[in-house]
Amino acid sequence: MNKFCLEVAGPFACFTRPEMKVERVSYDVMTPSAARSMFEAILWKPAIRWRVHRIEVLKTIRWINLRRNEVSAVVSTRNVQQAMTAGSGTLGLYIEDERQQRAGYFLRDVAYRIHADLSLAPGCNEPLMKYTEMFTRRAAKGQCVNQPYLGCREFAADFRLIDAAAPHSAGPIAETRELGWMLHDLDFTHPSDPQPRFFNAKMVAGVIEVPPFEEARG
């Protein structure tokens, strides 16, 4: 069995729209790439691939406006390389000098049921059962490689593994709406220059059916 289902929830979420250059504005619902990261936070190996095919919205879509302090700079790659070559160097950032306030339009009180398939990477000859058992064991115990989050790292997510075929206490919301062009995932054909791919998303009775990545557009 290589199909898995997680229920994830949290008080806040932000699945940032890439067209918003300055302010943080979230999509209406979780993106496939954010859903994939949930599964990868529990188990990721170079030998496996996750493909999200369905997202169910379990709570009414609600919004909140927040202003946050952010750091506007990053340590330059050149400084890191020089420090590595020299064996020492100054790589710190002074937060007071680089701090700026940004407005954000975030989701609040969110919950999703996400479905994904686990498969082997091309060229991998290991048994798939090895990784399905590993994921099942880790997810059932609440173990993860890193803390799952809802779009932004400060918005931590709770998760639990469920049986997709079993009856659920809460179903998807009874809402249908056009969501427009949504980020599907990044195309890493050229690792040094990953390109975003989009799909025309629609929520029907609280459910978004995610097409294969190959059908997404650049």
Keywords for this structure?
single chain; 218 residues; Alpha-Beta Plaits; 9-stranded mixed sheet; 38% strand
Question: What this model shows, in words?
Answer:
The chain is α+β, with helices and mostly antiparallel strands. The protein has one domain: 2-Layer Sandwich (Alpha-Beta Plaits), CATH 3.30.70.2660. Helices cover 18% and strands 38% of the residues. The protein is built from 4 helices and 9 strands; from the N terminus they run E-E-H-E-E-H-H-E-H-E-E-E-E. Strands 1, 2, 3, 4, 5, 6, 7, 8 and 9 form a 9-stranded mixed β-sheet that branches. The model has no long low-confidence stretch (mean pLDDT 89).
Rg for CA atoms: 19 Å
The CATH topology label is: Alpha-Beta Plaits
Total strands? 9
Instruction: Note the gap between the termini.
Output: 32 Å
Low-confidence stretches: none
The ordered string of helix (H) and strand (E) elements is EEHEEHHEHEEEE
Overall outline: globular
Under CATH at level 1, the class stands as: Alpha Beta
**Taking all residues together, what is the mean pLDDT?**
89
Instruction: Count helical runs.
Output: 4
Percent of residues in helices comes to 10-25%
Number of domains: 1
Beta-sheet strand percentage? Answer: 35-45%
CATH architecture: 2-Layer Sandwich
Structural class, please?
A: alpha+beta
The major sheet is characterized as: 9 strands, mixed
